[in-house]
Design brief:
0% strand, mainly alpha, 72% helix, elongated
Length: 138
């Protein structure tokens, strides 16, 4: 069975827009001295869960977009999404070091990478399930 033809450039960009929007939201939040003022102060003693959840969502949309654009398959798209998430998390930590009341922390970056890995795995499971259902219907 031959793979479907690659999407046109405008369509490719459309598949990547959620990931680009998500990255912009992460950047905006990182630019804020107090990004989530409604969160209890006790939460900020360990924000690693927030980092993991944030980057899990990021890797999920990156995997989804890359799978549709690159046509390399979910596993390769997920691996690329983890690499993108790790790199973006690193640049995010560096960015935060220039924001008042924020700091760069290697443990935050580790939480980012762990979250990106989890999000990519979830995306692969979702994409495989969706394709299996589509092949049954066909």
């Amino acid at each position: 069975m031959t793979p479907p033809p690659a999407p046109r450039p405008a369509r490719r960009l459309a598949w990547l827009l959620p990931a680009l929007g998500y990255a912009a939201i992460i950047f905006w939040l990182s630019s804020q001295p107090n990004p989530l003022p409604f969160m209890p102060k006790a939460f900020w003693t360990s924000d690693k869960l927030l980092h993991a959840v944030e980057y899990a969502g990021f890797a999920l949309v990156v995997t989804w977009g890359l799978d549709h654009v690159a046509r390399t398959g979910p596993k390769t798209a997920a691996l690329l999404a983890v690499v993108v998430g790790a790199f973006y998390g690193l640049t995010d930590e560096i960015h935060q070091s220039f924001v008042p009341n924020r700091s760069a922390d290697v443990r935050d970056w580790v939480a980012d990478v762990a979250g990106a890995s989890l999000g990519a795995l979830l995306a692969v499971a979702f994409l495989r399930h969706r394709r299996a259902r589509a092949s049954i219907r066909a």
